[in-house]
Amino acid sequence: MVTHNDPSREQAEEREVMAKAAEWLRQGREVALSTVTQTWGSSPRPPGSLMAMNDEGRSIGSVSGGCVESELISRYRKGELTTEFPTSVGFGVDSQQAGRLGLPCGGRLQITIEPLNSVALIDQLLNRIDQGELVARQVCLDTGEVTLSDGKGYPELSLSDERLVKVFGSGWQLLLIGDGQLARYLARMARMLDYRVTICDPREDFADPDPLPDVAYTRQMPDDAVRTLASQPRTAVVTLAHDPKQDDLALMEAIDSNAFYIGALGSTRSASKREERLTKIGFTPQQLERIHGPAGVPIGSKRPAEIALSIMAEITATRNSAVSVNISVATEA
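Above: the chain's sequence. Below: its structure in token form.
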């Protein structure tokens, strides 16, 4: 089996931010971590985006992709954001401020500024990330105390009046059961969204003579592939084989896995037949509810690229729903 050992781009960037913050602390610099916690309208960076800055005016990471970084660093160096405990600041609000700060018209974001003090805790976080763990970094907003715990079961970011929790670790990945044209479209789209992609197809006749770059291929049986990859909670599984012997093997294993999304290609009729087969085996209606079938949002898709788009849209919606749990996010027209 070909596997991905490298983190996704997003996770690599987050690790780089924390590693540089630890380096600055070792040099005796004052360091603060900025985390986007809430967004409204057209803010350019999602909740969870990170930037570290020090008292020399150096920074790493991004919270807006624009001029918010410059203003944050300037205010930090002037001592306006230097507090003993985490503090929250907002940017944007109206079109005039948005233009001045480099935000799209009407965009707004809320950022938590947190003074960093413990190199040991950052090193512990980095070590656990490097060991493949999913780690929840919890910050008490009243005291600034930081604790690390198992990240399984946490949304990617959560915010309350008492604490801010951000999950670090393994990247998002997509396991496709069945190779072919649709799998290639889905793989390309998923790679653009920073998923690590694995295509599983044990059928020799489906060996791809021109495999996609940056995509892993495996000849494992589908249930074995799911067992290997879907133990991680940031995994989506989609069956595309058009062969019940292949697809059902994967679905039966995925139902009780940590996968955040399980999708099955096919018509409403084939979905009904699949439900009958799995019910006879002993799966309950509650278990079968985990399967999105037919996979994809209803956009009238007929061509392979459109079907891939609809499936990727549903995966994205499911992922964002999981990410937004416990986050107070407002939206504006």
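The chain has ten helices and 15 strands.
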